[in-house]
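>> Question from a student workshop board

For tomorrow's exercise we were told to take the sequence and the ligand below, predict the bound structure, and bring the output to class. My setup keeps failing. Could a helper post the expected result so I can at least see what it should look like? The ligand is iron/sulfur cluster.
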Amino acid sequence: MKYFIKTFGCQQNVADSERVEAALTARGMKKAKNYNDADYIVINTCMVRESAENRVYGLVNNLSKLPSKKRSPFRRKIIVTGCMTGLAVRDKTGKFLRKIKEAMPAVDEFMPIEEVGFDHQLLRQDTESAWIPISNGCNNFCAYCVVPFTRGREISRPYEDIIKEAKALKAKRYKNITLLGQNVNSYGSDLIMHKKPIFVKHLGRYRIPTLFPYLLDDIAKLGFDKVDFISSNPWDFSDELIDVIARNKNITRTVHLPVQSGDTNVLKRMNRWYNCDDYLDLVANLKFKIKNLKLTTDIIVGFPGETNEEFENTVKLCKKVGFQIAFIAQYSPRFGTAATKTMKDDVPHTVKEKRWQILENLINKPNLSIRTGKARISISSA
Ligand code: SF4
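>> Workshop helper replied:
Here is what the output should look like for this input. Compare the format with yours to find the bug.
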């Protein structure tokens, strides 16, 4: 039997597909060259934008028309995994809340990614750089974001398992490591939570401290050339974390810090827990402590009710920070989110497009030499 995996979406999905591949290989399957050559097609899906979801429907439709595989005793199977099998489409009992199944009758199985686990030896194609997923899911419920519904609540992998995986990669002479999580720098909050947590005040709110600074420090000390992490949340970016980055020269100097909006009222409507001044203070602290720091970000334009003045505040913040790259998304309602349930998508498409263009010209055009293509939303936007 041969398998072929198609991955949509963020780096976390790419890492998840590596786990799917490891599980299929452990069952004795071989990798197919393409869809035609495969008996088992796995589609790892993304729901962060409507367009990503529509591409999955289109692909399944095309695959359903593929001729049968010559000389194979097996009927080709199509398996869908990833975000489109998560809680945004099913309830906790597994019942489908959306007509995803009806929209893709050719799919044989909808397999939640959690079923794959971390037990199989990964078959990494790259021999220098590797992803290590450290957590899955998110507890923050930003009003526009589908991640807490598709991925569920945040679950951190055991600390020792991650260190063990990193040490094994080091022994295989990997040079670059990227730690992955939808909200990577809140790693470990769930592990601490069960043990009488102490709350700490950061960016105006009380938070459970995270284990991420310790984990990052321990991994950096293993001696990789470069250690990266995505995606960080501003309100989990503690002073300890800044200090760890500052003192370990092999930790990235390009920090991805999604701001989403430069207007405090929009941030409130988005259920982001910092205001613009908090964000600028954090940036100032990062720049002060970390030499040669570069910042990248995620921004949503046209969030419900975003006025010209509110958008102008985002432009002002971007000018103050001087981002290297911004992944700019035009707001679109996602099923099940607070914004979809309680707010009207009232910013006209033409206005969203214009605002997108203004930020694109301001941030990304001048830095075109370091990136190509139209801005896209980055990993699940912590
Ligand atoms: S935007 Fe990021 S922090 Fe907010 S809910 Fe989504 S994944 Fe969590």
